[in-house]
User: Which sequence fits this backbone?
């Protein structure tokens, strides 16, 4: 039997760091969750978790999917840093440099959504498809796009959450919550946008509330744009808001209506329920994607 | 001296076929323009043009940038066909099959805009950059995106011209001319949209007409979306409407205002005049791109 190749993986989020040692979803050696407090407190705990696996020679590489913004330009002097994040204490943290120094492993860093997209392409709903798009709709909205097996970076990381959408203020006078753009996609449809509309957490808005039609309209409208520009073979929607699974058929319907049969492909018409999908890895796309990232 | 490697190139358009034998912009052996009438009439003339160069062994490959829609899925039984085009007589024409058979050369086909994008990356304003986006704004609106030196296809060719935009009907009550979507980007901002608005050809609308602010608004709004999704290193705007060069500064201003400094890169702020550019190859991006395509 061939021994699976273990790797270290970190999903660095605003509230917790998930750390894992594994080879794939079926071969996981160890896992822990650490609260995201300050870099001075959290990062030493992360290092402590991985040290024994490095010492024993079980892992030689580490993949990180992280909140951002991140500097991912390989030729930049601040490559591998968390840069201008609003999260207190985490500005200008040299994540890659620190972990490389302390653990003496190769370190691959990407955004949380790119890692999740990679995880879904390796072992989830995107398996066998390329390009794919993974979109998370939760505290924020962000997209990861994988083409040729690699996350798209380009000039900067794509910031799909800040897409401007048609916004009919007579049907929906809500101004949005994005501090930069007001009523961009994230401003209109993220978890905090829902909370602001209702003055109540999104989780307790009932399924039958007519608001969800509006929510599906914004998400569907964004997906139409992503289809026209990125032409993914599959779209995967994750994040807290998408736990409301009744949103999927509503969103698919919006996309069909907006494309109006212009693009001739059965996946965009009759078979759209095979095209716009929940994550195959549930809430583990990101951490498992970090394992895939470590192998690149 | 090394002999340049000559290739055949076709830019297949709705009104003319440009045919060329060349190696690069500085080494062009022959060129002709043939009117696009019927396939029975036009294609034999195309074959006639290339035959002597094939017979003499000067060209072994042919690149085609064509109007569409095209079937570009390599595993499809109708690969290389012009499919459901509205152009009379040109539906279901096996362009690649015919030219391969008649000329006995390798044939590479892509959309007209992907060919133009490739031309600009090889020898024009996109030289040295990747990914790049080329957008043509003329009779139609279409985009070609090159990543890793190759045009993006995905599930279908991207159809960026049919992007839905914020459309404030109190500022602009025009319904748009797209038969599929009404007021999508092409419906609002293409040459035919301008002609319909004014009842006059776009060419004779004076530079000082306040309409151009609206036109720049729609184009700029679309570019903002493309930046947030595709993150190109350079954007090149070609096509008849963009011959109005005063549009460039207006469009750049719209993009700056819409991004609101959210994306921190000097190319999107102070240096935006180096970022959104006219084609380096003028109106020859497409035919020269077909030469590049033949070499892939």
Assistant:
């Amino acid at each position: 039997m061939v021994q699976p190749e273990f790797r270290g993986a970190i999903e660095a989020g605003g509230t917790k760091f998930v750390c894992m040692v594994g080879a794939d979803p079926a071969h996981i050696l160890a896992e822990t969750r650490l609260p995201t407090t300050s870099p001075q407190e959290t990062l030493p705990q992360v290092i402590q978790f991985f040290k024994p696996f490095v010492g024993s020679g079980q892992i030689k590489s580490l993949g990180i999917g992280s909140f951002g913004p991140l500097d991912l330009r390989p030729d930049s002097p601040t490559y591998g840093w968390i840069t201008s994040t609003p999260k207190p204490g985490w500005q200008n943290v040299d994540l890659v440099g620190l972990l490389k120094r302390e653990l003496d492993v190769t370190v691959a860093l990407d955004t949380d959504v790119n890692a999740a997209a990679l995880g879904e392409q390796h072992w989830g709903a995107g398996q066998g498809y390329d390009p794919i798009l993974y979109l998370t709709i939760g505290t924020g909205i962000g997209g990861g796009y994988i083409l040729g097996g690699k996350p798209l970076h380009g000039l900067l990381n794509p910031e799909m959450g800040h897409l401007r959408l048609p916004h009919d203020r007579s049907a929906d006078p809500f101004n949005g919550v994005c501090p930069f753009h007001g009523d961009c996609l994230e401003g209109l449809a993220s978890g905090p946008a829902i909370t602001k509309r209702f003055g109540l957490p999104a989780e307790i808005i009932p399924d039958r509330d007519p608001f969800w039609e509006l929510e599906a309209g914004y998400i569907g409208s964004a997906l139409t744009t992503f289809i026209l520009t990125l032409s993914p073979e599959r779209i995967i929607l994750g994040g807290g808001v998408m736990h409301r699974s009744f949103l999927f058929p509503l969103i698919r319907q919006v996309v069909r209506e907006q494309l109006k049969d212009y693009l001739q492909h059965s996946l965009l018409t009759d078979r759209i329920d095979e095209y716009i999908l929940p994550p195959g890895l549930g809430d583990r796309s990101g951490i498992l994607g970090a394992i895939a990232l470590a192998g690149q």
Summary: The CA atoms of residues 135 and 143 of chain B lie 4 Å apart.
